């Protein structure tokens, strides 16, 4: 059997036609989710491992493709991110059981896992493949179906990657239709998916507008807000290590991750030594003229210059007319203030780091709070210090749910150089007006039904050990029309290829129905 990833082509803008196409995919996903929720843990993890192997094996190829298609980032760094969202992600959660009931005899309670059902996943252009890997794998770990809406700027590599992972999943025993992708997403079409009652949960990673749209869709949603991480380098820090780690972070994939440091704050007493350490770490410390050029180039009346996203420091310097040595990794831009009047204190998804000096630790903490008030509330922050009390005071004061200590913030907040959960969706919690403050993982795609016995000691607790509703196959094939056969299942058979004159995933009858619905809407009949 050759697994097929369902795709959509937008041939009509009418709400009826868009809803019809969304319903076809979502009904197929819902069917797959219902079947998948009956799998046992062994088969579930076998599918997860097969998909992780496919993600790892293709990490380099899709890293090259993503950089070529989007123009963002560094191939080697994207390859690393793609690999980290394969086996390491799965291994982090391997000992967690999201499939079997949990039995608590002391409390006389049984907890039964209940997957969300159909996950609608929005993915960004800056980290397209790593985000697809991550969202597919955490959905599979919890026996959910997933429909992916890729960013248009990374559409081709995203579609191909999703197809490869879908094929690996089905070949390992997953229900056909458990992984699907929208081939040509448009805003009206994606809104139909997000607003459909057949969508159980939206997992949004992308720009502010995308996340707000997800939250306003009427479907449950988990989204990441914008980042703007402040980093405080204290006088007690190892300044050489701090500079190297910050440059490593800020230059990683050319700052395409929203967890990268945005504004550095340090004390006047460390200023001269820290600048020298940055120069030794291949940072260019800008003079006043350089900073003015950067400010004009990076920000304009419409906001941040998106041409700079994921570009390297030398490229940005050349565009600004700044002379820097070859091999320069980041541009350090000293600023005299932090606030709305200083554009460089905003989020910058490029290797430009604003640099601000203060006279006391109290002022440093106040300025870090100001950075997060501009943008990035609830997201991430970092501190480099040898004094635990300083770390505690900083973490307790800043409105961020991840405070990385003596590590690169880009990798640390995302869980790749700390013990935080590896993720490509950062919960921003109450500070960021989100319901989740921790790194998003499979535990957020599942809830639990609890059988709670009478607590009176005279009422005996039942014997639940060994009971399970899972099975290991043989498994039915997802129906092409989203409706199961008369016996509830269909016998597996080769998936037919669409003919040349039909859309992928849409039959002639379905196409005629869509056109008829559109005509009725236009003619008012």
Task: Explain the overall architecture.
The structure is a single chain. Helices cover 39% and strands 15% of the residues. The chain is α/β, with parallel strands linked by helices and 525 residues long. It folds into two domains: 15-224 and 442-453, Aldehyde Dehydrogenase, Chain A, domain 1 (3-Layer(aba) Sandwich), CATH 3.40.605; 229-413, Aldehyde Dehydrogenase, Chain A, domain 2. The protein has a seven-stranded parallel beta sheet with strand order 10-13-14-9-8-15-16, sandwiched between helices. Strands 5-4-3-6-7 form a five-stranded parallel beta sheet, sandwiched between helices. It has a three-stranded antiparallel beta sheet with strand order 1-2-17, with no helix packed on it. Helix 7 (155-171) links the parallel strand 4 (145-149) and strand 5. Helix 6 (128-141) packs parallel to helix 7 (155-171). The protein is globular, with a radius of gyration of 25 Å. The two termini are 43 Å apart.
Radius of gyration: 25 Å
Assembly context of the chains: single chain
> For this structure, what is the CATH class of the largest domain?
Alpha Beta
- Total number of strands: 17
Major β-sheet profile: 7 strands, parallel
| Range of helix content | 25-40%
Q: End-to-end span in angstroms?
A: 43 Å
User: Which parts are unreliable, with pLDDT below 50 for 5 consecutive residues or more?
Assistant: 1-12, 478-525
Annotated CATH topology of the largest domain? Aldehyde Dehydrogenase, Chain A, domain 1
């Amino acid at each position: 059997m050759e697994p097929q990833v369902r795709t959509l082509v937008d041939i009509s803008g009418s709400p009826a036609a868009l809803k019809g196409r969304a319903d076809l995919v979502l009904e197929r996903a819902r069917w797959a989710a219902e079947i998948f929720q009956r799998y046992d843990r062994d088969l579930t993890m076998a599918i997860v491992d097969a998909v992780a192997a496919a993600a790892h094996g293709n990490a380099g190829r899709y890293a090259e493709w993503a950089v070529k298609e989007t123009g963002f980032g560094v191939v080697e760094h994207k390859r690393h991110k793609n690999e980290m969202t394969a086996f390491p992600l799965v291994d982090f959660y391997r000992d967690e059981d999201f499939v079997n009931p949990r039995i608590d005899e002391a409390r006389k309670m049984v907890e039964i896992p209940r997957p969300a059902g159909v996950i609608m996943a929005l993915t960004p252009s800056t980290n397209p493949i790593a985000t697809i890997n991550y969202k597919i794998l955490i959905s599979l770990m919890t026996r959910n179906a997933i429909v992916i809406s890729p960013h248009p700027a990374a559409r081709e590599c995203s579609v191909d990657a999703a197809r490869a992972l879908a094929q690996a999943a089905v070949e390992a025993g997953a229900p056909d239709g458990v992984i699907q992708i929208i081939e040509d997403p448009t805003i009206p079409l994606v809104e139909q998916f997000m607003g459909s009652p057949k969508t159980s949960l939206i997992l949004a990673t992308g720009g502010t507008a995308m996340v707000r749209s997800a939250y306003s869709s009427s479907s449950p949603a988990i989204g990441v807000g914008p980042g703007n991480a402040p980093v405080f380098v204290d006088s007690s820090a190892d300044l050489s290590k701090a500079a190297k780690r910050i440059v490593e972070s800020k230059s990683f994939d050319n700052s395409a991750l929203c967890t990268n440091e945005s504004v550095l704050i340090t004390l006047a007493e460390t200023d001269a030594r820290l600048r020298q350490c940055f120069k030794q770490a291949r940072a260019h410390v800008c003079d006043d003229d350089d900073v003015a050029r950067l400010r004009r180039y990076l920000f304009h009346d419409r906001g941040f210059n998106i041409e700079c996203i994921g570009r390297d420091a030398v490229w940005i310097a050349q565009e600004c007319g700044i002379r820097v040595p070859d091999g320069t990794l980041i541009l350090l831009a000293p600023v005299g203030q932090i606030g709305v009047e200083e554009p460089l204190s905003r989020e910058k998804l490029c290797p430009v780091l604003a640099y601000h000096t203060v006279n006391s630790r109290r002022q440093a903490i106040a300025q870090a709070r100001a950075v997060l008030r501009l943008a990035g509330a609830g997201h991430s922050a970092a501190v480099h210090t040898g004094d635990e009390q300083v770390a505690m005071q900083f973490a307790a004061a800043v409105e961020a749910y991840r405070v990385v200590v003596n590590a690169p913030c880009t990798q640390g907040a995302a869980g790749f150089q700390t013990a935080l959960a590896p993720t490509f969706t950062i919960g921003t919690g109450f500070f960021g007006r989100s319901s989740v403050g921790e790194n998003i993982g499979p535990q957020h795609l599942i809830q639990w039904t609890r059988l709670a016995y009478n607590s009176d000691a005279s009422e005996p607790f039942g014997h639940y050990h060994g009971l399970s509703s899972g099975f290991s196959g043989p498994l039915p094939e997802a129906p092409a029309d989203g409706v199961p056969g008369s016996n509830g299942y269909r016998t597996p058979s080769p998936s037919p290829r669409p003919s040349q004159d039909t859309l992928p995933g849409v039959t002639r009858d379905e196409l005629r129905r869509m056109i008829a619905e559109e005509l009725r809407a236009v003619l008012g009949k």
